Amino acid sequence: MIFIYAEWCIFAVMVVKIVNKSNNPLPKYETSGSAGMDVRAFLEEDMTIAPHERKLVPTGLYVSLPEGYEMQIRARSGLAYKKGLILPNAPGTVDSDFRGHVHVILANISTETHLIQNGDRIAQLVFAKYEQVTWEDVEVLDETERGTGGFGSTGV
Fold first, then answer.
1. Total structural domains in the chain?
2. What's the CATH code of the domain at 60?
């Protein structure tokens, strides 16, 4: 972590090591309030995704995340809404101990074939802290007001 001091606050910036074997720029935040960084396809030739098909799209990126953090791969809302290109495992998780080539699984839920070209923004990356747990095997759980109600039990 790098700490940046401003007149009225302190920012903590996580530094992530990255190897970029693509000819595309590094992922970046498009606006100052963005939670996700856009990531681009790294393709030697154009790729098509037919209706109801899914493809593994390379990015050319390799990362080294700090322990206790994951990199989530999420759909870009514009691609999902306008073209029907989604991530079937969204969010996808890149673990802190993974050092391989980062790929994005794109699925086409539309009725049209879509073209993916080198440099197209195909997903976004969001970083999240996580905790690992240890299970405590018990016979009975504590009581709550909600109890076992689920799937719409708290209202319309």
1. 1
2. 2.70.40.10
